[in-house]
Amino acid sequence: MNKMLAVFKREYLQTVRKKMFIIMTFLMPGLMALLIMVPATFVRRGLKEKTVVVIDGTGRLGTAFGEVAAPASRLPGSLSKLEEQSAPTNRIRTRYVDAAGVDPDKTAERYLRELRSGTSTDPVDGVLVIPGSVVDATDAKVKFYSRSATDIITQERLGRTLTRELQAQRMTQFGIDAARVDQILSDIDIDAVQVSKSGEEKRGGEMNLFVGFVFGALLIMPVFLHGVEIMRGIIQEKNDRVVEVLVSSMTPTQLLSGKILGLAAVGLTQTGVWLAMGAIAGSLSLVTATMAGFNVTQFLRPAVFIYFLTFFILGYLMLVCVYAVGGAACNTERDAQQLLAPIIMVMMLPWFLMMAILTNPDSTMAIVLSMVPLFAPMAMFARVLVSEPPLWQILLSIVLTIGTIYVFLLATAKIFRVGILTYGKRPTIPELWRWIRVA
User: Fold this and answer.
1) Domain boundaries, the chain
2) Residue 192 — pLDDT band, cuts 50, 70, 90?
3) Helices (H), 247-330
4) Lowest-confidence range among 201-210, 287-296, 331-340?
5) Which DSSP state fits 131?
6) Residue 194 pLDDT exceeds 70
7) What are phi and psi of 98, to 5 degrees?
8) Do 115 and 145 meet the contact criterion of CB atoms below 8 Å apart?
9) Is it the case that residue 338 has pLDDT exceeding 90?
10) Which residues pair with 127 in a beta bridge?
11) 11 in the Ramachandran plot: left (φ > 0), alpha (ψ -120 to 50) or beta?
12) Which member of 58, 126, 181, 364 lies 3.0 to 4.6 Å from 52 by CB, making a disulfide possible if both were Cys?
């Protein structure tokens, strides 16, 4: 026990005393915030104003698309309802053309040539062609031309504006008072409320998804950062023949346990600092959030941190065992990464399905994933964060995961016992199985 604690102490202190560890611990939250904010800022600024020519075959949609009092040869744009809806992200400036009584497709040819050439002083980014029968015929086809096949945002906004105006026109035709049309078509805001078993109401909506992804990232980031470190450390000690000296004074199991627990403590330390920094930053905006009617305490309740700590330790121990196997079985980092890549990808499945789990925490898929030990730490914590799974499911998930970790530790210790003194080519999966049986 004392020897294992000595390894634990060495691994922990050796890592936390590194300048890079201290710097990255305090800089990582800021770097992650920049990684989120900078691309979003560039995307926001990169969405330039677009000019769309609207060819209206009905002659009745000028109000929606900003009809202008100017000759058709110039058609300067004006602010419209559509532009007001799109601000301030991707602004759309419309050039309205009244094509009532003529073929809108023929009228559009000039603007399509302008769209293809892109050489005019007032370049066109898109052409919307509305047939004259669109108000009365439900099967009329509206065409949108643009230089990009993926200009979905502009197409969706134009379609939304057109649909709303057509609904108003049709209601007016059916005798509904025009003054009441806007009232009938007004949008209704829906407030998402989660009702707990105790009757407590929790609000959050989209914030639930954001918090779920943040906690999910906190579950896996330290594991990958320090799991790679334990793999590299074992490979380096093998290549330097240091491990041969170490196993002469302690058992391989003591050496492995000390390394795993030491780096688990490192991960908890780093994550604890990040959570504390997040709590400080969150407290600064707590008053504003409370005034806005948002209950921040539903995400900061003690149960969340207890479950986070529990599933963090379980997930950490499981993944670190896998990295330790890679380090013990291989002689180079490249061989270890090739061996572990398929396994890690499988274990990352809950992260890839995080959106589905957070939006449907009680679905069959989410329940099954939270019961599979390889996926349980992340999947079950995500369910606990946004819903209230039955207590027996949580306990069963924890018990199954603990049992799997115990089996992993035994298998890892056996592979470690043989692998740390094995040199040469990378072992195959059958050879690893043979090591487990004979060790």
Assistant:
1) 50-185, 205-438
2) low
3) 252-284, 286-291, 302-329
4) 287-296
5) -
6) no
7) -80, 110
8) yes
9) no
10) 53, 145
11) alpha
12) 126
